[in-house]
Amino acid sequence: MSDSLLDRANKGILGLKPYEPGKPIEETQKELGLQKIIKLASNENPLGISPKALNIISSYDDLNRYPDGNATNFKEKVSQEEGVKTSMITVGNGSNDLIEFVSKCFLSEGDNAIYSQHGFAIYPLAIKSTGAKAIKAKAKDWGHDLSLMKDLINENTKVIFLASPNNPTGTILESDKIIEFLDDIPSNIAVFVDQAYFEYIQEDKYKVPFKLVEKYKNLIISRSFSKAHGLAALRLGYAISSEEIAEFLNRVRQPFNTNSLALAAGIEAIRDKDHIAQSVEINKSGMQKAIDAFDSLGFEYIASFGNFISFDSKKDSDSSFDFFLKKGIILRSLKVYEMPNHLRVSIGLDEEMNAFIKVLEEYKKAL
Ligand SMILES: *Cc1c(COP(=O)(O)O)cnc(C)c1O
Q1: Residue 12's pLDDT is what?
Q2: Which of 84, 166, 181, 254 is deepest in the core (most CB within 10 A)?
């Protein structure tokens, strides 16, 4: 046998590259010797964690104990809040975990799953790591082309990923369109609707109601605590699905995938409606600032329903990214998303947006 160990790895892994997260603040500070760095790169909540959630973490003293593997209290809170049965909930170490569970449950070699061009990068990673084929549907106006996604279905299709709002484009789907799609496709294909930015959605027509999973047994809806709830470091998300699917997802879930601090903080974050409302307000005003600046400086942007906005930097985004970085602003280059000139800016606090806009003005002059 001549193959090396690495050649003998699960074939799906061979073509993958590790996901590249937003540049961390400390490392950048050291690298560039800058005093102040503003990170607008990973769609985090600039307001920070809810004080109530922080309080519960600070006083938590059972860290020698394993977490509650069934996340009982957390599920009960979600159940009360959202009117779903606890048996329909699957908890994740971030909602990325749930994307993996769905892939693991339904995909293996010979199967395929469909996602959208410019769609969230974790979908093809999770799909390919199972050995299945990731089919990319060309985007339409930067968003998901549901009719094309339907046309790409074949007998080996088992999962379809929809992000609404999508990251990094910020595009959104009306829930009626998702319902039409569910009616149009075979019910033996899992449809994963990723609503990581749910709290930022202003209009009801875009909110995908959990009660749909009662009618559509193939529908899985995910939520994250990393964005509006401000708990990105703790890793917490959940999915709502039929009880049957939840039971499957839980088969591949590690029993202690969500940690005690995350579960306790998650409950407080759900309770702290003021914190969410304030976070949404900050996002609204920061988004307006960004849009006004893009308009007045003549940069094209993609209207966004999330807590970030992507704009055309008019040149290779590696070099525009560097321009901002050297001035202490970390943005996100969207090259890996097939958007070679686009940068994504996460919406920050007012003063952070002002700093971004100041550098944007300098960037425009230097173009
Ligand atoms: C940020 C993000 C997630 C959430 O990731 P977590 O694992 O919950 O931190 C999921 N989907 C999309 C589209 C995102 O942008």
Answers
A1: 87
A2: 166
List, for residues 195-229, the tens digit of each pLDDT value: 999 999 999 999 999 999 999 999 999 999 999 99
> In residues, how long is the chain?
367
State whether the beta carbon of 119 lies less than 6 angstroms from ligand 1. no
Q: How far is CA 83 from CA 76, 78, 98, 165, 293, in A?
A: 10, 8, 20, 23, 41
Q: Are residues 345 and 247 in the same domain?
A: no
The range of the structural domain enclosing residue 249 comes to: 61-271
Residue 98 is assigned to a structural domain of this protein: yes
Measured from the CB, is residue 307 less than 6 Å from ligand 1? no
Could you tell me if 205 and 86 lie in one domain? yes
Average pLDDT over residues 271-300: 98
Looking at residue 163, which CATH number applies to its domain? 3.40.640.10
Which residue is closest in CA terms to ligand 1's atom 13? Answer: 167
Residues 264 and 226 in one domain: yes
Distance CA(307)–CA(337), nearest Å, equals 18
Count structural domains, the chain: 2
Instruction: Give this prediction's pTM.
Output: 0.96
- Residue having the nearest C-alpha atom to atom 1 of ligand 1: 196
Give which of 226, 239, 233 is closest to 307, Cα–Cα: 226
Check if 196 has its Cβ closer than 6 Å to any atom of ligand 1: yes
Residue 55 forms part of a structural domain: no
HEC profile for 135-198? Answer: EEECCECCECCHHHHHHCCCCCEEEEEEECCCCCCCCCCCHHHHHHHHHHCCCCCEEEEECCCH
